[in-house]
Every structure is written in C-alpha cells, then in structure tokens.
Design goal:
The complex is a heterodimer of chains A (149) and B (556).
Chain A: E1 12-14, E2 18-19, E3 24-26, E4 35-37, H1 40-52, H2 68-73, H3 79-99, E5 110-120, E6 124-133, E7 137-145
Parallel strand pairs in A: 3-7
Antiparallel strand pairs in A: 1-4, 2-3, 5-6, 6-7
Chain B: H1 8-25, H2 36-62, H3 65-70, H4 77-85, E1 96-105, E2 111-113, E3 119-121, E4 124-128, E5 132-135, E6 146-148, E7 150-151, E8 157-168, E9 179-182, E10 189-194, H5 207-217, H6 226-236, E11 242-246, E12 268-274, E13 280-292, E14 297-302, H7 304-307, E15 310-318, E16 341-348, H8 364-367, E17 373-380, E18 394-403, H9 407-415, E19 425-429, E20 432-444, H10 454-466, E21 474-476, H11 477-488, E22 492-505, E23 511-516, E24 519-521, E25 535-538, E26 544-550
Parallel strand pairs in B: 5-6, 12-19, 20-25, 20-26
Antiparallel strand pairs in B: 1-8, 1-10, 2-5, 3-4, 3-9, 4-8, 7-8, 9-10, 11-12, 13-14, 13-18, 14-17, 15-18, 16-17, 20-22, 21-24, 22-23
Helix pairs in contact in B: 1-2, 10-11
Classes of the chains: A alpha+beta (149), B alpha+beta (556).
Chain lengths: 149, 556
C-alpha cells in the first residue's frame, strides 16, 4: 500500500463518511460535524457530483454535468443501457475537463471511470464505479433512485 | 429582479469573484470547479450575491434619472415611482376603455343583457356596466338600465348598452362598427357592433415612458414654452398622444399677421393636439329643419360645442335607423347607407359668451377643426313623409361625425384665466387629417404554412402609422414593411411596390388626393396651415386591404 504526503494540499469539504474496508464509499451522509478531505477523495466526490448533475441545469456553467440521470430515467434500465449511458457521461466529463483543465497533483485529477457492477432493484439502481486519477484509483458506490418501468 | 432574470455572465463573474475572495482568506481550500465547496457553496452563494448586488445597483440607478435612462426597464418600478413623486411626476395608471354596443334583434321583444355577459372582439373582452333590459315601449324606460328598442328600416330592431373593457389598455379603444360576439347565446340577437369608437383605454406607463415623460415634464407645467405647454396638456389630458405648437415666426402661423403690415407680430400660438391614434366616429341625434317640403331638403347645423375637432360629417340617417358595420368600414371612403348630403359648410363661432377672451381667428383656414368651428349641411330624405309637415318643421336624424375628441375641453382649459399665458393666446386645433388607404399583397412561400391573422396584421400597421410623429411627417414603405416583418415570419413575404393613398382635408374646406407606391409626405402648404408640423396620418384597419397569393414552387 502506497502512502501520500498531504502536507500543503488544498482541502475540500467531505460530504460523505461512507467509507468501507475495500476503499469504497457510499453517498450516504452520517457526518455529525464538518470534515475535510483531500487527494483522490476529492476526485471521487467531483465525479459523483458531475454524474448526478443534469447538464444545462447550472445557468452560469451549462456544460457542467452529464445527461446520465435523464438518460436513465427514460430508459428500460437494462444493464447494457446503463453501461452505455455511463460511458457517454464519462465522455462528457472528459470533454468538460478538456475545456476547464484540472489543476493540482496527480491523485486529484480525473482520468477515467468504469462500472464495476450494477444492481437494479425495485426503486433504485446501485452502481459501483471505479474512478481513476493520474496516480491512484478509487471505487465509489452511487445509488440512484428511479421509478422502474 | 428574480434569480431567473440574472444573466449567466453575471453569475459566473460573481462565482469567480467569490472564489478568489475566499481563497485569499483561506488559501488551503480547494475552490476549483467540480469540488464540493465550489458546487455546493460558491455556486449557490454567487446567485444570491449577484441578485443582491444587482438590486443594489438598480436601487442606486433608481436614485439617478441619468443612470436610470441607460436601462430603464431594469429599474424597480416602485422605487422609480417614489423618486419621481418627489418631482411631482406620477406614472399614468392604465385605464379601461368604455363605449356603447348596438344590440341588433330579430323581434321587438324585451331582451335582458346580464351584467356578466362577455362581449369579445378578437381577444378583447368587454362587460356591460350593469344589467340592461331592452324594452319595446318608452313607458317602460324607467332607468339608465332600461333601453328603448327601436325599429330599423331593414326590419331589424336595435337598442344600445354601455360596456367597459375587462382590462386596461389602449388596445381596447376599438373603432366604430367593429363586430362583437357574446359569450352566451342571447335570444333574438342577430348581431352586435360598436355604436361609436370606444375611448378612455390607456396603457400604464412603462419605466421607459415614465423617464421620457420626466425629461419633458421637469419643465414647469404651464402654457409657456413648447415643452411646458406639451407637459401641461398631457398632465391634464393623459390620453393625448402628441402636440405640435406653431408660434411666432413659423410659416403656418397666420393669425399673428392680422395687422396693416401683414407681418408676424407674435402674441398667438396654434396648438395642434392628437388626442388619440385614430379619430372617432360619433353619432349625434340632431333636430334638422325641413327647408323645402317639395324637394324634401333638410338643413342641419352643428354648434361649436358639437363641431369642435370635427373633420367631416360622415353620414346622416333617420334617428331610428342604424348603419350596419359593413356600411361604416374605414375612414378613407365615405360611409355607405347615408342620405345624400348636398352641401356641408364649416364656419366659425367666436362669440365671447362664457369666455373673457377668444382667440383672434379670421378665416376657416385659421380656425377649422378647432373648438370654434361650426358646421351646416343640407341633405335630402326622399323617404320622409311630409304629409303633415311644413317648411320649418323639425325632424330628428342621426348624424355621424368624424372627430378628434377633447379639443373643446383642452381649448377651454387653455383659455381659463388662471392658466392662460398673460402675454398671448392659444388656439387648439385637431391636426390636419390625412386619411390613408393601403393595399398590400403577401406571397405565401410555403403552401403548408399556417394562415396569417390579417386582422391582427392590419391593426399592427394601423398602430405603427398612428405612431408617426409630427416631426417625421411622412408614411413610408419601410415603416409598413418593418411593422409586418416580424409577424410574417419566414413563410410569407410582402410584395412591393404597394399602393398607398392619402386624402388631405385642408382646413379651408378643400381636399386633395395623394398616392404613391413608396411614400406619402404631409403637404408643405404653410399658407393653408398644412405642413408636417400640423398634419397627422390616420390609417384605419378598415382601410387596409391585404391579398395573399401562394407561390408555385417545384420540389427541390
């Protein structure tokens, strides 16, 4: 296991403490006080924010976000469709970062992401995603509440 | 200012500002796009901050008329009102148009028109001012709400009711003869139309208009300079659209040359007032005198109270008759259905009566269309039963006059000793009328395109021509094309040249026709008091003819 030197790093607000042993986290906030984070955790949070933000919904930055939620809502939620929509969303994120270059050390810059597993239940979809930075990878679990048709 | 009104650039600039500001204080925070701090803190805060800052800027601008001029509609209306009230300038509130509708019945039977009956013309709605009852006998006319049903000479019966617009606005000032439909089926009613032009409808002033008014009305509201006289009139008659004041040294000023040398001596001004976009057609019940029993010739005289601001007598019919809407379309051509009018002569009545001074007016050229105008005309009624009538007998007729309203009231105000200038007198006149007629042809490029609303198109053209200022003094093809272009869209084009005609009614009683395919100018005849400074163009929607052809195109 490698270690990183976080001295002098810029920090972000930690918006979930759903860490698990296998270095995954869930978007499920049980924080009782504000905490901060840095390193790859910031990238994982950014990825989750962008994936779940509808592109065009932020007036001052209409390119921020993806079409993922919209696509999923209007689909049959098959695994094939979900993976296609996800890949399309990742492409949109990479295009965004091409226009708005990322700064900071290697483990704070998003490179790519892929789906590790998909679980479709009655009213939600749970995606386990691997987010890769220029230095390390992190797995995150993203739950999406949807109405299954 | 709502969040939705904020420009995106203002928000993004504010985001950058806040991120920089916070970074300076807390350099260890990662405030780049995509981070939680940026997305969940900076972005929402920026919207709130930008909104506040915009409101503060607007507030500051509201306190300065010079700053407010740059972007008047962004200024908070309530703030602007408060600031201008300090200067005794108030926003003109909109007002509702009122008028009278003629209800045409198939039978002479009592008919109730409930208070909540909707009468509509296109998307304009009117309501009766109270519940009216048309009654068949004058014995039953006991209040304002009971109206006598009279027989028309075509076998139908009519009575009239008073109505008020559902909303404020000048769009409700509809023309005489316009046809209405009712929201509910009214028994025996076969048609409904406007007895005379509706009036009183005013749009509430926008910020832009209010600031423009402030610029002019900051001058004292007295009859003195051109600007202050204009302010004074508009302050007291809010419907006035435009004024033009002719004074010493102007070619059109004839009255101040009443001296042995025939030179301009000052002391007089002519105020031409356009009180509304189009003149009104107003029916008046008049007692007319039978002057020749054998030829059934009658004479009718309109006093200066009745003839003030009148341009012409449009029609005369028996008092119990009515002209149908189809007979009263437009202003350019005479009304059809009128008894033949043999001679109409305008005169002047400058008797002192209730005034302590009257304007010095020598001729009709100097005083036509003013408050001191009178009109006498002869007409023949072949159907008049003269069996029991002798010469000199009096018979009632309905006389339709075309007039610019409020001329008498404005003149009376300016002659009031309290208000009139100490050193000179003012004569108020309706503008010299140029009644226009327009024929245009539209080419439909796509046969599948939706039909165009020609009535709306006519109204738009009419409104644009009515807005031509005294200073401009001409109707041009470009004005008409510009007025219709946005409505036509990409499926229609306007074909040029088109036919534009005008009938100038000179104040000396003569008239002249002008026609052009691209421009009509106001005549430059100062000796007839007729120039661009005194003339106004009137293009009634009923005087606009629009033909539509479909282009034949091969498939590409």
């Amino acid at each position: 296991m490698s270690t990183s030197d976080y001295t002098g790093r810029k920090v972000d607000l930690l918006f979930t403490d759903g860490w698990s042993e296998d270095s995954k986290f869930q978007i499920m906030n049980t924080l009782d006080a504000a905490k901060i984070c840095t390193g790859v955790q910031k990238v994982a949070q950014t990825f989750a924010l962008m994936l779940l933000t509808e592109v065009g919904s932020i007036k001052a930055d209409p390119e921020f976000g993806t079409t993922f939620i919209n696509d999923v809502s209007s689909s049959s939620k098959s695994e094939f469709e979900l993976i296609s929509f996800f890949d399309s969303a990742v492409l949109q994120m990479r295009n965004y970062f091409r226009v708005n270059p990322q700064t900071g050390p290697d483990d704070e810059r998003f490179i790519r992401a892929k789906i590790l597993s998909v679980q479709v239940s009655a009213d939600s979809i749970q995606l386990t995603i691997q987010v890769d930075t220029a230095a390390v990878s992190r797995s995150i679990v993203v739950p999406i509440g949807v109405v299954i048709r | 200012m709502t969040f939705a009104d904020l420009p995106a650039t203002t928000i993004s600039d504010t985001e950058s500002f806040l991120a920089t500001l916070i970074s300076e204080q807390f350099p260890s925070l990662d405030l780049t796009k995509g981070r939680v701090l940026y997305e969940l803190l900076i972005r929402p805060a920026a919207i709130f901050y930008a909104s506040n800052q915009t409101n503060i800027d607007n507030f500051k601008n509201s306190l300065s008329l010079i700053a407010a001029k740059d972007n008047p509609e962004a200024i908070d209306s309530e703030l602007l009102d408060l600031v201008l009230k300090n200067l005794r300038i108030e926003r003109a509130a909109g007002s509702k148009s009122t008028g009278r509708l003629v209800i045409v019945l198939s039978e002479n039977t009592s008919t109730v028109i409930p208070r909540l009956t909707e009468f509509t013309l296109n998307d304009l709605t009117f309501y009766p001012t109270e519940t009216f009852i048309g009654v068949s006998s004058s014995v039953n006319v006991t209040s304002n709400a009971t109206r006598l049903i009279t027989a028309r000479n075509d076998g139908a019966y009519t009575f009239s009711i008073d109505v008020e617009a559902a909303d404020t606005g000048s769009a409700f000032n509809i023309q005489q003869g316009a046809s209405f439909i009712s929201s509910s089926a009214l028994p025996r009613v076969i048609s409904i139309y406007a007895e005379s032009g509706f009036s009183g409808g005013l749009d509430a002033e926008s910020n832009t208009e209010l600031i423009r008014k402030a610029s002019s009305t900051l001058s004292p509201k007295v009859a003195c300079t051109r600007l202050s006289t204009d302010s004074f009139i508009k302050e007291n008659f809010t419907s006035v659209a435009a004024t033009s004041i002719i004074g010493c040294g102007d070619g059109e000023m004839l009255r101040d040359k009443h001296n042995v040398f025939g030179i301009s001596s000052g002391g007089k001004a002519d105020v031409y007032v356009r009180t509304r976009g189009l003149p009104l057609v107003e029916p008046i019940i008049k007692e007319c005198t039978l002057t020749n029993k054998a030829s059934k010739l009658l004479t009718c005289g309109l006093s200066r109270d009745e003839a003030a601001g009148v341009y012409e007598v449009r029609a005369v019919i028996p008092a119990n008759a009515d002209l149908t809407p189809a007979q009263t379309v437009g202003l350019y051509s005479p009304f059809t259905g009128s008894l033949p009018i043999d001679i109409a002569v305008s005169g002047l009545d400058i008797s002192i009566d209730d005034y302590d001074i009257v304007p010095d007016v020598d001729s009709l050229t100097e005083g036509a269309f003013s408050r001191f105008q009178t009109i006498v005309f002869n007409f023949t009624d072949e159907d008049l039963d003269t069996t029991n009538l002798d010469d000199g007998a009096v018979v009632e007729y309905k006389v339709y006059v075309l007039k610019m309203p409020d001329i008498a009231a404005i003149q009376d105000m300016l002659l009031d000793r309290q208000y009139r200038p100490c050193g000179y007198e003012l004569l108020v006149r309706a503008p010299i009328p140029i009644l226009c007629n327009l024929s245009i042809s539209l080419l439909k490029l796509n046969s599948n395109a939706a039909d165009i609303d020609t009535e709306s198109l006519k109204q738009t053209i009419s409104d644009r021509v009515s807005a031509i200022t005294f200073q401009a003094g001409k109707v041009t093809a470009s004005i008409i094309i510009d007025a219709v272009t946005t409505i036509l869209g990409s499926d229609y084009v306007i074909e040029t040249p088109f036919t534009l005609m005008g009938k100038v009614l000179y104040p000396d009683g003569t008239s002249e026709f002008v026609t052009s395919s691209y421009r009509i100018d106001a005549p430059d005849e100062p000796a007839l008091c007729t120039t661009n400074r005194t003339a106004a163009f009137y293009l009634d929607p009923g005087d606009i003819d629009i033909s539509i052809q479909t282009a034949v195109n091969r498939q590409v």
